[in-house]
Amino acid sequence: MTKTAIITGASQGLGRALAANLADDGWRLVVDARTAEDLQKAAASWPDVTVVPGDVTDPEHRRALVDAAGDRLDLLVLNASSLGETPLPPLARYNLGHLRQVFEVNAVAALGLVQLALPKLREAKARVLAISSDAAVEGYPGWGGYGASKAAVDQLARVLAAEEPDLRIYAVDPGDMRTKMHADAFPGEDISDRPEPESAVPALRRLVDEDLPSGRYSAAGLRS
């Protein structure tokens, strides 16, 4: 039976790398991103994919993603994220409107999508991968808004795992990667020493393919 995954934020970075890997393994994909042209370009070589451009903060868009999955959903990857304002500001002068938007994208919309998908996830005894960050647990200057939103994601995953014991709910820190988000976080700096997003995919595939307990993982720990 063909497995189906919804992956948000699949036009670039880790979302694109994981989607390409699953496509190569014969998964059916439902993918989204805010920019339709970039998403179409990313998905052009994936053989069984439904492209649903849109914004995860839009409830109708979230409904469209779940509807596009059809009768079965084996994997939900909550990858779409907002870094917030850049250069990264200290909390002392963080714009509260921007902070609300970061939480809306990274935590509120993620839970909204899980809520809609739960009936299908329960039926398939599926997996949920919520992409987290070391900024959720470490106190890096400038990373307060993004890190706090990812800490919220970690706690949502932790409680969902307790409430939905038949599912596998994971929060996973992929580590530093050479992505646009990291470039935006460090404007003007050379981030070419960071590994490509593809380097984190084998660790994520362990969560997809093996029966590891629900919990918080890091890609580095999954590789060891």
List keywords for this structure.
224 residues; alpha/beta; Rossmann fold; seven-stranded parallel β-sheet; 8 helices
How would a textbook summarize the main sheet? 7 strands, parallel
Query: Which topology does CATH recognise?
Result: Rossmann fold
Number of strands: 7
Oligomer: single chain
What gap, in angstroms, lies between the N and C termini? Answer: 31 Å
Q: Which parts are unreliable, with pLDDT below 50 for 5 consecutive residues or more?
A: none
Strand order of the largest sheet: 3-2-1-4-5-6-7
Overall pLDDT score: 94
CATH homologous superfamily label: NAD(P)-binding Rossmann-like Domain
The CATH architecture would be 3-Layer(aba) Sandwich
Q: Which percent bin holds the helix content?
A: 40-55%
CATH top level label:
Alpha Beta
Structural class: alpha/beta
Q: Rough shape?
A: globular
**Rg for CA atoms:** 16 Å
Q: How many alpha or pi helices?
A: 8
Order of helices and strands: EHEHEHEHEHEHHEH
Beta-strand percentage? 5-15%
The figure for the number of domains is: 1
